[in-house]
Design a protein that fits this description.
By secondary structure, the protein is α+β, with helices and mostly antiparallel strands. The chain has 24 helices and 16 strands. It folds into 3 domains: about 140 residues, Immunoglobulin-like, CATH 2.60.40; about 170 residues, 60s Ribosomal Protein L30, Chain: A, CATH 3.30.1330.60; about 160 residues, Tetratricopeptide repeat domain (Serine Threonine Protein Phosphatase 5, Tetratricopeptide repeat). A hairpin with a 2-residue loop joins strand 2 and strand 3.
C-alpha cells in the first residue's frame, strides 16, 4: 500500500524548481505499509504507513496538506483531519519534515461501510510555497480491503434448557413374609396376609399393563438383631430358602421370572429406619448408640441394658425385622411425543412441567412450540420454559421479544447470562457481550467469546475459544484462517456448505493454489457469496 506516496510526491514538488520534475521523482521514495493490503477489523480499516524523505526533498518554507480518501462502490470517505507538514523555516505548528531527510509515520483510519471491500485508497494533496497553492496529482496507494472476518456467523451460540422427562421410569412392587422368633417356617396366615395379597395384585396389574415390564425379581431375607450373630445368619439363610418355596407356590403359572435369593443376616439398617419412624420415647438415644458402635454385639448389649427401651423394641420393632422381602423390579415406558401431543390437545393440564418441556423440545412447528412453552409458564411458572421461549425468539431473529422473555426469567443463571450476552452481541455492544460471556459458565459462552475475539481482531484467542464450537465448524475454520493457521483451518472444514467451500477457496488463495481456488468457487450456489467472490481481495489475480 502507498498511503503516503502522494505526500512524498508533494514533498518533492515543494523542494524543486519545477513541480512537474518533483512529481516525477516520487517513485524514488521508500514507502512501507502495515498491513500491505487494507484489512477490515472490528468495523474499522486501520493502517500504519511510513515514508522516508531523502535529503533535499522537502523545502524549508513549504507547507504540505495531504488528505487520505477511501473511494469505494457508492461513495468515498475522507479522514476528518488531513495530515499537515511544514518545512524547517515555517513558523507554524504542523509536523516538521527536515530538508536533510526524515522518515514520517502516520496512522490511517476509516469506519467501514458496505462497499468498501471494493475500494482503493488515494491521497489528495496541496502544497503551499511562496504564497501559491498547487493541487498535485491524486495518487492511488492501496487497492481493496480484506473483509474475510465478516464471513463470521455472529448470531451467537444458544442452547435450550433441557427437560427431565424420563422416557422410562423404574419402580418396585414389594410384599413381605413375617416370621416368628427363631423360626424359618412360613405360616399359612402369612401367605394370605394383606402384604402378600397386595403384592400379587400388583404383579397382575403389571402383567396386564402394556407399558410395564418386570425386569427382575428377588427375595431378601433377614433376622432381627437380637441374639448370637452366627445363629441369626443361619436363621436368615433358612428364611431365604423357605421364602423361595413360598414364592414358587404363590406365583405358580404366572410366568414370573425366578427370583434371586439373598440372605443378609441381621437387619440393622431396617432397625434404624423403624426406630426413626416409631413413637418410642427414647428413639434418639437408640440412634445415638447405633452411631457410636459398629460392632453388632456391642450395639445389642448397649440397647438391652436400657430395659424399658428394649421392651418397647421387642413389641414395636423387632417383629417387623423377622422377615423376607418379595421384590419385583419394574420398568415403565413413558408417553411418546405423539401421545403427549394428543394429551396436550385434549387437556394440557394433564401434563406436568417435564412433559410439557419435552413436548416443546420435539415440536417441529415453531408456533406449536411457542404455545406449549407459554402453557408451561402459565401452569407451572416454569423458568426453563420462559428461558426456552427467549431462545426460540432469538432463533427467529425476534430480539426485542427475546429480551422481554428473558427479563421474565426469575433465576438468572449461567444460561441466562450467556443469552444476555448474545443479545448484546447482536446489538453490536461488544463490551457488554464480552462481560456476559466472561461471567457465564454455560457451555456455549466460550464459543460466544470466540465470536467477540474475531470481531475485535484477537484472532489467536478466537481460534482457541472456538475450538469446540458446535455445528458446522465454519466459524472455527475462519478463526484459524485469520490467525494464520491455514493447515488447521483446512483440517476442520468437514461440512460441505457454501460457506465452507468459500473458506476452502480462501485457504487455497493464501497458499497460492489457483486450481483449488477455482474448484471451490465453482461449487458455490449462493448468489450473495458468488457476488462477494467477484470483489473479494482474497481472490485478486485469480481467474475462475
Amino acid at each position: 500500500m502507498r498511503v503516503l506516496a502522494a505526500a512524498a510526491a508533494i514533498a518533492i514538488a515543494a523542494s524543486c524548481g519545477s513541480m512537474e520534475q518533483m512529481a516525477k521523482q516520487a517513485e524514488s521514495l521508500v514507502i512501507t505499509c502495515d498491513p500491505a493490503v487494507l484489512e477490515v477489523i472490528g468495523g474499522s480499516i486501520d493502517a500504519t504507513v511510513s515514508v522516508t524523505y531523502p535529503e533535499g526533498y522537502f523545502l524549508p518554507k513549504a507547507i504540505l496538506e495531504v488528505t487520505p480518501v477511501l473511494v469505494y462502490d457508492g461513495g468515498e470517505a475522507k479522514m476528518e483531519e488531513p495530515f499537515m507538514y511544514q518545512g524547517e523555516k515555517v513558523k507554524d505548528n504542523y509536523k516538521v519534515v527536515s530538508s536533510k531527510g526524515q522518515t514520517v509515520t502516520e496512522k490511517v483510519h476509516f469506519d467501514y461501510v458496505e462497499g468498501m471491500e471494493n475500494s482503493y485508497l488515494e491521497l489528495r494533496g496541496v502544497v503551499k510555497a511562496k504564497k501559491k497553492d498547487i493541487a498535485l496529482p491524486v495518487v492511488k496507494v492501496a487497492q481493496g480491503a480484506n473483509t474475510t472476518y465478516m464471513l463470521l456467523k455472529a448470531d451467537g451460540y444458544l442452547a435450550e434448557m433441557k427437560d427431565n422427562y424420563q422416557e422410562t421410569t423404574t419402580a418396585a412392587a414389594e410384599g413381605q413374609i413375617l416370621y416368628l422368633v427363631n423360626s424359618s417356617e412360613v405360616r399359612q396366615s402369612e401367605l394370605k396376609s394383606a402384604s402378600v395379597k397386595d403384592f400379587l395384585a400388583e404383579l397382575d396389574e403389571i402383567n396386564s399393563n402394556d407399558r410395564a415390564t418386570i425386569t427382575g425379581t428377588s427375595i431378601v431375607a433377614y433376622a432381627s438383631p437380637e441374639g448370637a450373630i452366627d445363629l441369626n445368619n443361619q436363621l436368615s439363610e433358612r428364611r431365604s430358602q423357605s421364602a423361595g418355596k413360598a414364592w414358587n407356590q404363590l406365583t405358580k403359572g404366572s410366568g414370573i421370572v425366578e427370583p434371586t435369593v439373598i440372605s443378609l443376616g441381621e437387619d440393622w439398617e431396617g432397625f434404624q429406619k423403624l426406630v426413626s419412624e416409631s413413637s418410642i420415647e427414647d428413639k434418639e438415644l437408640i440412634i445415638r448408640v447405633l452411631s457410636m458402635y459398629s460392632d453388632p454385639a456391642v450395639r445389642e448389649n448397649e440397647i438391652r441394658n436400657m430395659s424399658e427401651v428394649f421392651t418397647a423394641l421387642k413389641k414395636e420393632v423387632l417383629p417387623e425385622l423377622r422377615r423376607a422381602r418379595l421384590i419385583a423390579d419394574v420398568e415403565y415406558k413413558n408417553f411418546t411425543p405423539e401421545e403427549l401431543q394428543a394429551m396436550y390437545k385434549d387437556d394440557p393440564s394433564t401434563l406436568d412441567e417435564e412433559a410439557l418441556l419435552r413436548l416443546a423440545s420435539v415440536s417441529e412447528n415453531e408456533a406449536d412450540k411457542e404455545d406449549v412453552l407459554k402453557k408451561a409458564v402459565k401452569l407451572y411458572e416454569s423458568d426453563r420454559a420462559q428461558y426456552n421461549l427467549a431462545v426460540l425468539y432469538m432463533k427467529q431473529g425476534k430480539n426485542d421479544k427475546a429480551e422481554q422473555a428473558l427479563a421474565a426469567v426469575k433465576d438468572g443463571g449461567d444460561d441466562v447470562i450467556n443469552a444476555m450476552g448474545v443479545l448484546a452481541l447482536r446489538k453490536g455492544d461488544l463490551e457488554t457481550a464480552e462481560d456476559c460471556f466472561s461471567k457465564s459458565k454455560a457451555a456455549e459462552a466460550k464459543a460466544n467469546m470466540g465470536l467477540v475475539y474475531v470481531l475485535t481482531g484477537r484472532y489467536d484467542e478466537a481460534a482457541s475459544a472456538l475450538a469446540d464450537a458446535p455445528g458446522c465448524p465454519v466459524n472455527k475454520a475462519l478463526a484459524y484462517i485469520l490467525a494464520g493457521d491455514l493447515d488447521k483451518a483446512e483440517s476442520v472444514l468437514k461440512c460441505g456448505s457454501d460457506k465452507a467451500n468459500y473458506l476452502r477457496a480462501i485457504i487455497a488463495a493464501r497458499k497460492g493454489d489457483a486450481d483449488a481456488v477455482a474448484e471451490n468457487l465453482h461449487k458455490l450456489q449462493d448468489a450473495d457469496l458468488k457476488a462477494r467472490a467477484e470483489k473479494d481481495v482474497e481472490f485478486a489475480g485469480y481467474v475462475w
